[in-house]
Fold diguanylate cyclase.
Amino acid sequence: MDNESQQENSPENKRLFLLYTNSLKSVPATILNSSILLALFWTKVPWLTMLIWYTLMLSVSIYRLQQVRKALKTKSYLKLHPKKALNQFILGSSITGAIWGASFVLFNFYTDEAYSLLMIWIASATAMGGSMSLAPSQRAQNIFVGLIFLPAVVMNIFSGNEFNITMGTLCILFLIVLIMLGNTFSSWVNESLTLQAQNQELLQSLQQKNERLETTNSELIKTKEFLTEQTMSDPLTGIANRRSFDHTLIKEWNRCLRRQYPLSCILIDIDYFKRFNDHYGHQKGDELLREVANIISSQATRADDLVARYGGEEFIVILSNASHDDAVMLAERTRKAILDAELEHKNSEISDRITISAGVATITPTNIQDCYEIVHKADEKLYEAKNNGRNQVC
Ligand SMILES: Nc1nc2c(ncn2[C@@H]2O[C@H](COP(=O)(O)OP(=O)(O)OP(=O)(O)O)[C@@H](O)[C@H]2O)c(=O)[nH]1
């Protein structure tokens, strides 16, 4: 969550937001009420007094409405200190309250008992509506209601007239009830605003935790992939290791068994590798193993082919759905590619270059066979190739 939305969601600013949005309804209601008052009292109160009062109420209301709309549209209240923005708002609502309060004092001079009652009724309705609308701020509520009623209370009580004293007393009672109810309502609103802010904070911390979990999870996935690669590949040559070979052999064997495809296997051995090591050293031997692994990999390129290091200087190739002829052809191509690479081997008994021998086996799997039979057969063929003079495919 960015800074602005964090600020917007603070209880203080939410309170202001509620006060402003409530005003969009309560201020037009004030205009309506004062217009009703104007219509009702037009013939009773001197027209100039009435006009001044109504113009004042209308101007203040329109000005407040404009300010509230602007504040909501531009979110200008977020730039002010919440206390200052609240004080400005309370000033506006208090002026409205004071104009209402003034009306009850002013108009009372010119009206009879029936109209006084009517005015008290309007005052009560206005105070009640205002109190609900100002519920987010207890202070705004109390000042507004107080300013409406207190002048009427004071004036009625000190009038000396029995009817007015009764009215004044009723006004005090109503004022007390209204303040108590308003304050209860206000504390509910504030409690709900605090809870909303706490929820927002909780949600935010949950989101952050979730993001951290997602990051950890993707790191774990990467580590798992890395570890899987490590356990499935030969560290020296980078091609698949024996473990990976076993895994693929079982998988491909079962696939060929289901579909009744031929499965071929080529076992490759570098001729006189021990002599190479003895002559050029173990490190050169390692380099040669890497070179040979690359050449074999460059020949078996189908998506399902697997080239693996089977043992010290032995490599194995699995060719799924490949006929024996195709496998022999690939083995022959590989033997030639290694020969053509002209990798020097002065200590070989059959050539001055590196040569390989390969044994090829092909089986269309059946249920009674074990998958390692194909490796056993390829090994026999390799032995044959060695016995026949090496540098050949059998
Ligand atoms: N440099 C190196 N040598 C290895 C590695 N693994 C096995 N060897 C050597 O490979 C040699 C294999 O020797 P042999 O099994 O006699 O095979 P060969 O010399 O190729 O004989 P033929 O297969 O009969 O042609 C041994 O000397 C091992 O030490 C390795 O990772 N690096």
Observations:
- The longest helix spans residues 162-232.
- DSSP finds twelve helices and four strands in the chain.
- The chain has two domains: 3-206, 242-387.
- The first strand starts at residue 263 and ends at 270.
